[in-house]
Specification:
Layout (H helix, E strand, L loop, with lengths): L13 H4 L8 H13 L4 H28 L1 H4 L7 E3 L9 H7 L3 E2 L6 E7 L3 H11 L5 E7 L11 H4 L11 E6 L9 H18 L7 E4 L4 E3 L1 H9 E2 L4 E5 L1 E3 L6 E2 L5 E6 L15 E3 L3 E4 L6 H10 L14 H10 L13 H6 L15 H5 L18
Parallel strand pairs: 1-13, 3-4, 3-6, 4-5, 9-13, 10-14
Antiparallel strand pairs: 2-8, 6-12, 7-14, 9-12, 10-11
């Protein structure tokens, strides 16, 4: 027993006391101190902290966009339903009866129709569009810029290929607008700037009150018989959206999501403005085709991916790899590895996975079927693209 009769029976932690000993090597000292610190932590908690959390953060980085789209029903309400107008057509039914079936009267003479588009580099699709609409269009209005929406310099592709469109030359109003090339700007700002310029070009083309104006991108193609119906029928809505069948990479892969629309307006001076968003609740169903990435060459896919307003969807550089793009086209998968843009979990889950091939060339633009060899890559069973 120590002096004073006091005995301390408290246990001591020898290795923690030894850390300050003068004979302890520097490396052993550091390891021993670390052991002292870690004795108060649970091993599972440490694994979660140093392994689980980084893996979780990396998973969010890789698949954050998918998670956001999958949870869309939680943070966004479905859009207001459209007033659906059934679409009647048969080549052996008179125009008077077709107008009557839609609840409209018939005019003594057809309205003039103006087809206005912004052009980037879609030469083949423009040929399909203009040949489909040519019999019914009074004036084609086309505007192109030396800048993409993302501020990248581009050649004036239409000007270089103008000879291919001689059939429309007598009814063509063509304009060029210089890009602003503002670095770091939201692409939708440049897009809006170009659409305002197109609005001015439409007026230069000579549009008048009650003429029909088609507002859609080059790859959003109304069917010719639909436009013919609207120019002959009286009492049609002032603004009318056209539901387009939505194809991805050719007229083989078909998405039945009714999300792409062109619009037709009865022109009102001082009121009608060229725009590309929902402008009315009236929707005429089954009125044409939308073929968003219908290109002949892989290089054209890469150009559009880097040029259009949704450039933010290129989350990783390998998205632009030619071999990957070719594989995605043939599988019918999403070019940006995105989930369906739907507003219910049921619709999202139902549309997961590759889009099934339709293998049907019925009710496609006639110009495609009249030029099968030239546009074979757009027809069923021909997913391979040229590399140039």
């Amino acid at each position: 027993m120590p002096e004073g009769g006091y005995y301390n029976s408290k246990k001591s932690d020898d290795f923690c006391e030894d850390v300050c000993g003068p004979q302890t090597a520097r490396v052993a000292l550091s390891l021993t101190r670390l052991r002292c610190i870690l004795r108060g932590f649970d091993l599972k908690a440490l694994l979660l902290l140093f392994v689980g959390v980084p893996i979780f953060i990396f998973g969010i980085y890789l698949h954050g966009q998918k998670i956001t789209y999958f949870l869309r029903p939680l943070w966004e309400s479905p859009p207001k339903p459209f007033n659906i107008i059934p679409h009647y057509y048969h080549e052996n039914v008179s125009m008077e009866n077709l107008c009557k079936l839609h609840g409209w009267g018939i005019r003594e003479t057809p309205r003039r129709v103006f087809d206005a588009v912004l052009f980037s580099n879609e030469v083949d699709i423009l040929a399909v569009r203009w040949n489909e609409l040519h019999p019914y269009i009074s004036e084609f209005v086309l505007l192109e810029s030396n800048s993409t929406f993302t501020g990248r310099a581009k050649p004036l592709v239409f000007a270089l290929n103008r000879e291919k469109f001689k059939f429309a030359e007598s009814r063509l109003t063509y304009g060029v607008v210089g890009g602003r090339f503002v670095k770091g700007e939201n692409p939708f700002v440049e897009e809006s700037y170009q659409r305002v310029a197109l609005d001015q070009l439409i007026r230069i083309a000579g549009i008048n009150e009650d003429d029909l104006l088609i507002m859609s991108d080059v790859d959003e193609i109304p069917s010719g018989h639909t436009i013919n119906l609207l120019r002959w029928c009286d009492e049609i809505p002032d603004k009318l959206h056209l539901e387009l069948r939505n194809y991805l990479y050719s007229f083989e892969f078909y998405q039945d999501n009714k999300s792409w629309r062109a619009s037709v307006h009865r022109y009102k001076p001082g009121k009608t403005r060229y725009a590309h968003f929902r402008q009315t609740d009236d929707l005429l169903v089954d009125s044409g085709w939308h073929c968003s990435f219908c290109f002949r060459h892989i290089s054209e896919f890469i150009f559009k991916m880097k040029a259009y307003s949704h450039v933010d969807r290129i989350r990783f550089s390998y998205y632009l790899k030619a071999s990957r793009i070719q594989d995605v086209i043939c599988r019918g998968a999403d070019l940006f590895d995105m989930l369906p843009e739907e507003h219910t979990f049921q619709d999202i889950i139902a549309k997961l996975g590759p889009i099934p091939s339709s293998f049907s060339a019925v009710n496609l633009p006639g110009y495609l079927l009249q030029n099968v060899e030239k546009y074979k890559y757009l027809l069923p069973g021909n997913c391979k693209r040229e590399s140039g």
